[in-house]
Amino acid sequence: MRIDRRRALALPLATLATPALAQSWPQRPIRIVNPWPPGGPGDQIIRPISAKLQESLGQPMVVENRAGANGSLGANIVATSPPDGYTLYFGHTGALTISPAVQPRLPYDPIRDFTPITRILGQGSVLASRASLPVTTAQELIDYARTRPGEVNLGSIGIASTTHLFGEMIAAAAGIRFTHVPYTGAAPLVTDLLAGRVDITLLGLPAVAPHIASGQVRALAITSANPPRIAPDMPTLNKTLPGFETESWYGMLGPANLPPEILAKLHREFAAAILSPDISALLVRDSYEPVGGTPEEFGARIRHDLEAYRAIARRLELTVG
């Protein structure tokens, strides 16, 4: 087999190119695409972390808010960017695992088109009930719903939201059936939960904590594997449904084929920032659990959740868009 002499001479140079690039990277500002509006929860998470990296890397970290399509707009921007470490995606459960499970025509593939860097945090959802529902535990809710198929209504912040899918995953695991009632957001949902027009819902702890404290809402369990550090006594759903665990998360990703040396450096810097005492305290205060795991662990989590949401979407015959 004949090999062009110029191509053969170029092979050693190509082998050296990636380490050389990594040693000199970064040499200019790094853009972090945040697919949520300015001033929202996403900004409150990523901006303190990006400030840490700006110090450690010596280059500006520019957080660019590109809201739209439940995070998918921002995801596609990064998926089609050069894999040079200068454009990163502040990704969320929704755009990377739920949307691909229920939307057949997304312009990106969550596995093929991204390089996972690290999962920043996880957050379980509180299975909460109206105070007048005659149950006080997850097991009592399951028993109650089993004798009343479809009578317990599940309020969510919208079709194919985490509040919707988490509830349907519980129903599937327990062999029961809820009636789904979608709302246009958390505020009207919580209003109706307090008024007793909604039986149960699944929301992040900050949305329901004041009402749990006042006795207007009951916390039956949390969907994460372990209780949040800010509420260590909260029961976990896996005590009732062994092996059950699901949560929302945020993570950092780059385009596919990010050079390994740049990936290693990004992971090291992001993990150090996430697990630093001040950032960790900030996340725990807001009921998040800092993670900072490896790229391999984050990739495995994306694949696991994607399959779980695809399974529940098939069960519900659910497609969006």
Summarize the structure.
With 321 residues, this protein is α/β, with parallel strands linked by helices. 44% of the residues lie in helices and 18% in strands.
List the helices and strands and how they pair.
Layout lengths: L4 H20 L5 E5 L6 H17 L3 E5 L6 H8 L7 E6 H10 L11 E10 L2 E5 L7 H9 L6 E4 L5 H13 L4 E4 L3 H9 L5 E4 L1 H10 L2 E6 L25 E8 L4 H15 L2 H9 L3 E2 L4 H22 L5
Parallel strand pairs: 1-2, 1-3, 6-7, 6-8
Antiparallel strand pairs: 3-10, 4-10, 4-11, 5-8, 5-9
Can you walk me through this structure?
This protein has 321 residues and is an alpha/beta fold. The protein has helices spanning 5-24, 41-57, 72-79, 93-102, 138-146, 162-174, 186-194, 205-214, 260-274, 277-285, 295-316; strands at residues 30-34, 61-65, 87-92, 114-123, 126-130, 153-156, 179-182, 200-203, 217-222, 248-255, 289-290. The chain has two domains: 27-122 and 247-316, Bordetella uptake gene, domain 1 (D-Maltodextrin-Binding Protein, domain 2); 126-239, 3-Layer(aba) Sandwich (D-Maltodextrin-Binding Protein, domain 2). Strand 1, helix 2 (41-57) and strand 2 form a beta-alpha-beta unit.
